Amino acid sequence: AIAQSTREQILLNIVRSRYLEVPVFLTVSSVLTQYEYDSSIGLGGIFESGAGTNDIFSGDTNLRFSERPTITYLPVEGQEFSAHLLSDIPSEIIFAAAQAGWPIDIFMRIGVQRLGATENMSFGEIPASGYVDTKTQFAADLKKLKRFERMVNLIFVLSDQEIIEVQQVEEDDKNQRYLIIAENVSEELRPLLGELRQLIGLTNLNRFRITDRVTNLKDDEISIQTRSVMAMMEFVARGVEVPLEHLKEGRVIDYGLQNSDGEMANGLIPFRMRSSKSRPQNVFAAVRFNDYWYYIDHADITSKRALGLIIVLFRLQAPTPAGAAPILTLPTG
Questions:
Q1: For residue 190, what is the enclosing H or E element?
Q2: Do residues 15 and 288 touch, judged by C-beta distance below 8 A?
Q3: Strand-strand pairing, 285-289 and 292-296
Q4: For 24-74, how does the pLDDT look when each residue is reduced to its tens digit (9 = 90+)?
């Protein structure tokens, strides 16, 4: 139940972000379990006099047991928690996940903001009207997203063919990572490598030092900027399908990603939550907000993977504060 609560908290806060509301995080303060026992014994009988009559005796016993668990939640807040939640995910986690065999395509799509010269779709909200043309901003964001998606696809193709890889080297008692490009590339893969170099902005060198800086980069350096857990939630929140009436009423920002039927454009955002007035049945996860249910389908593997990644990173970046561990109280005697 506690693990399910974490999942539902993340989902609910993603929906809150879509509606421009402040996320709220809770932690378990205590778990109290009460047990109740109730027993009874009854006897009865019917006595009749006279010839041919029979006396009747009856009895019954009852035993009832009930368990009433009570979970107490407290809001998680404070400077330390906020700092963890708003801090960028260390790029080392991406490389460690890749070396451990995790498929990191979802990680790159929702957790990386910039790789070299290629920038992902922005995750922040659009400035108020009058400062920027929102339609122009939306079009520019979608263009960024498509370029970033193409770059990720090229990286996976070339990685599978052992054309590019990330190597770790110990320098000055520190682990430094380099992007290595093979010197011998087959004829059919050279156009793909050339396209990747152009997208990322790489020179003709074959060894690039990975850094998180974006200014004053040397020819043999490549920049990687990651996102925070909050930024990732803000980004995937654009994949929430809100009711068309909410779009028309202006409750949320219309990013132009939903069609006339209210469905999200397939594949643009690697996360999708549908909405329904009635409670959906047999779904992976669902939360209720503003008189609507928002849910993820069981068959939506991409959204399930994205949600699982955010939950893992949330636990890594924002651990439960000291003193807030669950307490289980059981009666004795």
A1: helix 190-200
A2: no
A3: antiparallel
A4: 776 655 556 666 666 666 665 555 555 555 656 566 666 676 666 665 555
